[in-house]
Automatic annotation (TrEMBL):
Keywords: Membrane, Transmembrane, Transmembrane helix. The gene is LOC116061682. Signal peptide: none annotated. This is Mal, T cell differentiation protein b. One of its GO terms (molecular function) is structural constituent of myelin sheath. Residues 18-150 form the MARVEL domain.
Length: 152
């Protein structure tokens, strides 16, 4: 039988190791909740376009970047260096700021459309919940990435 060894917090995983290490296990839930925000906002009438355009930008940007980050780590294209650990922390910090601002914008617009069509209102509420769940996941990933970067 093959032995499995846990990687220390100060090393960057590659391959299937991203499914077992503390900060990297959040990639898939971040993709799922970010994708749900994207789908739910896209399925409603975009009114007003500017704040919801920002929400769409954030959800698509973070979805694509998180997917690329996941592929880079899974393929082992990163070199086990503190530069990648710092970049991981920086990206997830930016994602937290983006999703927090998008979630607040989406919550405000949803509150303003409260007297509109009930189905659209319920979809918008779901999008707000998933936006804040994505923010929480990115925040936890940021904290764990900062610990890993510090221990590198």
């Amino acid at each position: 039988m093959a032995e499995t060894t846990a990687q220390p917090m100060g090393s960057l995983p590659s391959g299937l190791g991203i499914c077992t290490t503390a900060p990297d296990i959040f990639y898939l839930p971040e993709l799922v909740f970010g994708g749900l925000v994207w789908i739910l906002v896209a399925s409603t009438h975009v009114d007003p376009p500017n704040p919801l355009g920002w929400v769409m930008f954030v959800s698509i940007f973070c979805f694509v970047m998180t997917f690329l980050w996941l592929i880079i780590f899974a393929a082992g294209a990163h070199q086990n260096s503190s530069g990648w650990a710092a970049a991981d922390f920086a990206y997830h910090s930016l994602a937290v700021l983006f999703y927090l601002s998008a979630g607040v914008d989406l919550a405000f617009i949803t509150l303003m459309k409260k007297s509109g069509e009930l189905r659209i209102y319920q979809i918008d509420i779901s999008a707000v919940v998933f936006a804040f769940l994505a923010t929480l996941l990115y925040f936890i990933h940021t904290i764990l990435s900062s610990i890993r970067w510090k221990n590198f």
